[in-house]
C-alpha cells in the first residue's frame, strides 16, 4: 500500500509544517483561504456483552493533498522537490515562512455520508479526467487526534463495494503505527487535524517527515498492517514488520529493502496467487460484483489481549453467509505446513512462504505488539504507472493481463472508478458481524428465505487440528454472529 505514498510524493511532497498554537513568532498560522472541514464518518465499537456503540469519528486527508504556500505569496509553493532552501533552510524558518491550507474534500475525490465513504480516482475538470488518488485517515471524536486502533485479540469489520474497480486499481484499507497526534510539536501544531505524521514499512525518503523538513535524507518508518488491498479481480492482506516502535527514522542502508529496518515485502495471502482462482471475483464464491463484508480477526496464543499474536484470520460475509478464507492451495511449501494449511496467516505460513524479512523482524509477535500500542486506520485509492499493479492482480497473482492495469488504459476506458467503504466496526471477536440474515452493515440482502446459512470454518475444511483452540474461538464467533442477527 505504501507504494502510493512514494508515487504521490514524486509529484507533490508532503510538507507538514504549520503554526498557530503557542509557538510564538517562530510559526505562521494555519491558512485561512480554504477552511478545513472534516467529513463526518461514523464508526462503531462493539463488545459481545453490550453490542455496538456509535462513535462520531471523521476523516482527514494527508497534507500531501493540500495547498502549501509561502506566507506572503499564495502563488509560491513550499511543497517543492527538492526543498526550497530559501523558504526552508531549517525547521523553524520553514514554519515561519509557510502556510498549510484546508481542503474541499470533493475536490480530491472524497464523498462521505453517515457511515460510508466513496473514493474516486479521477475527476473531470471540464476538459479531461485528472487523477486525485485520495488517501484519508480516521480521526477520533475530538477531531484533533487519530482514532487509536488497538486490535490484539479483536476483530475489524467493514463493508466494501469495489464492483467499479477493475485491473490495476487498488482500493485499500490499512493500519499504520503513526503517532496518534500526527507528530504534533511546536513547529507542527496542526498535527493529526491536518493529516500530518504519515509513515509506513516502506521507509520512503521524502522531503518532509512528521512536520519537519528532511534535511538528512532520512526515511519515515513504522509497522504497517495492510488489511485490505483489492479490486474486483484480486485481493491480498499483508502484515509488514519493523524494528522500531511507533514512527521512527532510518538512514542510509537501514532504509534499504534488503536487510533494512522494515519488511517491505511482507507476508501476504492472495488466494489467486496460492492457487484458487475461483474463490474471489465477479460471480465467484466471494462475488465482487456486489457488496460484501470483510472481517479480519487478530487471534492470540491464549485468546487474551495480553497474549502473543498467533494468527490473522479472514472471513467474508455475503447474503448472510459467513465464508471462511479458502484453504485451497497449489503452493507446495504451504501445502506442507504441519497440520495443514487452513487459509489463515500464521508464523508457519510465513516460514513456508520464505518471508525472511518479516520473520527476521519478529513476525507475528512484532505485529501484535504494534496492534497493542495502537495504529491509525487509513483508506486510499490508487493505481501504479510503474508496475500496473501486477503484484496484486497480474501474472500468478490474478487474472489481469500485462497491460490491463496501465493507468492510461484505465482513464481511457473506464475513468469513473471508485470504491465505497462503509460500516467500519471493531471490537470483541464475533461482535462486529452477523450471519444467517442481513450482514451487520446491511450491505448484503437477507438470505434467510434464500437458504443462506452461517458456515462454520470446519464445514469448509478451514480449521485443522493444529488450530483446534483457535478454530473453536472462530466457530463460536460465527455462532454468536448468527444469534445476534
UniProtKB/TrEMBL annotation:
It is an enzyme of class 3 (hydrolase). It holds the Pfam family Glyco_hydro_7. One of its GO terms (biological process) is cellulose catabolic process. SUPFAM superfamilies: Concanavalin A-like lectins/glucanases. It catalyses: Endohydrolysis of (1->4)-beta-D-glucosidic linkages in cellulose, lichenin and cereal beta-D-glucans. Its EC number is 3.2.1.-. Residues 1-27 form the signal peptide. GO terms for molecular function: cellulase activity. InterPro entries: ConA-like_dom_sf (IPR013320), Glyco_hydro_7 (IPR001722), Glyco_hydro_7_sf (IPR037019). Keywords: Carbohydrate metabolism, Cellulose degradation, Glycoprotein, Glycosidase, Hydrolase, Polysaccharide degradation, Signal. It comes from the Eukaryota. Belongs to the glycosyl hydrolase 7 (cellulase C) family. This is Glucanase.
Amino acid at each position: 500500500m505504501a507504494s502510493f505514498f512514494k508515487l504521490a510524493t514524486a509529484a507533490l511532497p508532503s510538507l507538514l509544517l504549520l503554526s498557530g498554537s503557542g509557538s510564538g513568532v517562530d510559526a505562521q498560522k494555519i491558512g485561512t483561504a480554504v477552511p478545513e472541514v472534516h467529513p463526518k464518518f461514523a464508526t462503531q465499537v462493539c463488545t459481545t456483552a453490550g453490542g455496538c456503540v456509535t462513535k462520531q469519528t471523521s476523516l482527514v486527508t494527508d497534507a500531501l493533498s493540500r495547498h502549501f504556500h509561502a506566507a506572503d505569496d499564495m502563488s509560491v509553493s513550499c511543497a517543492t522537490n527538492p526543498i526550497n532552501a530559501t523558504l526552508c533552510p531549517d525547521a523553524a524558518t520553514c514554519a515561519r515562512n509557510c502556510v498549510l491550507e484546508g481542503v474541499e474534500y470533493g475536490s480530491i475525490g472524497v464523498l462521505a455520508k453517515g457511515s460510508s465513504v466513496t473514493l474516486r480516482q479521477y475527476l473531470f475538470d471540464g476538459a479531461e479526467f485528472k487523477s486525485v488518488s485520495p488517501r484519508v485517515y480516521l480521526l477520533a471524536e475530538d477531531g484533533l487526534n487519530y482514532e487509536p486502533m488497538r486490535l490484539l485479540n479483536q476483530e475489524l469489520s467493514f463493508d466494501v463495494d469495489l464492483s467499479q474497480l477493475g485491473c490495476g486499481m487498488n482500493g485499500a484499507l490499512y493500519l499504520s503505527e503513526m503517532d496518534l497526534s500526527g507528530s504534533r510539536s511546536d513547529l507542527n501544531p496542526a498535527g493529526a487535524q491536518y493529516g500530518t505524521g504519515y509513515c509506513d514499512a516502506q521507509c520512503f525518503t521524502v522531503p518532509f517527515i512528521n512536520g519537519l523538513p528532511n534535511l538528512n535524507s532520512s526515511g519515515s518508518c513504522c509497522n504497517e498492517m495492510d488489511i485490505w488491498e483489492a479490486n474486483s479481480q484480486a485481493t491480498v492482506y499483508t502484515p509488514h514488520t519493523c524494528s522500531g516502535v511507533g514512527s521512527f527514522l532510518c538512514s542510509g542502508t537501514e532504509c534499504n529493502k534488503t536487510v533494512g529496518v522494515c519488511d517491505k515485502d511482507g507476508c501476504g495471502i492472495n488466494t489467486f496467487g496460492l492457487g484458487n482462482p475461483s474463490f474471489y471475483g465477479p460471480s465467484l464464491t466471494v462475488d465482487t460484483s456486489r457488496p460484501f463484508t470483510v472481517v479480519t480477526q487478530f487471534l492470540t496464543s491464549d485468546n487474551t489481549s495480553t497474549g502473543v499474536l498467533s494468527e490473522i484470520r479472514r472471513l467474508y460475509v455475503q447474503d448472510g453467509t459467513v465464508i471462511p478464507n479458502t484453504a485451497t492451495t497449489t503452493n507446495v511449501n504451504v501445502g506442507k505446513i504441519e497440520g495443514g494449511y487452513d487459509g489463515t496467516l500464521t508464523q508457519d505460513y510465513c516460514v513456508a512462504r520464505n518471508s525472511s524479512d518479516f520473520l527476521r523482524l519478529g513476525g507475528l509477535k512484532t505485529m501484535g505488539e504494534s496492534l497493542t500500542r495502537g495504529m491509525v486506520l487509513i483508506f486510499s485509492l490508487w493505481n501504479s504507472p510503474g508496475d500496473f499493479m501486477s503484484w496484486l492482480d497480474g501474472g500468478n497473482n490474478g487474472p489481469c493481463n500485462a497491460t490491463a492495469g496501465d493507468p492510461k488504459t484505465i482513464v481511457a476506458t473506464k475513468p469513473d472508478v471508485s470504491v465505497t467503504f462503509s460500516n467500519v466496526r471493531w471490537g470483541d471477536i464475533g461482535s462486529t458481524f452477523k450471519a444467517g440474515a442481513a450482514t451487520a452493515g446491511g450491505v448484503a440482502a437477507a438470505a434467510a428465505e434464500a437458504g443462506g446459512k452461517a458456515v462454520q470454518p470446519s464445514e469448509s475444511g478451514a480449521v485443522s487440528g493444529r488450530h483446534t483452540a483457535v478454530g473453536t474461538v472462530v466457530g463460536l464467533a460465527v455462532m454468536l454472529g448468527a444469534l445476534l442477527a
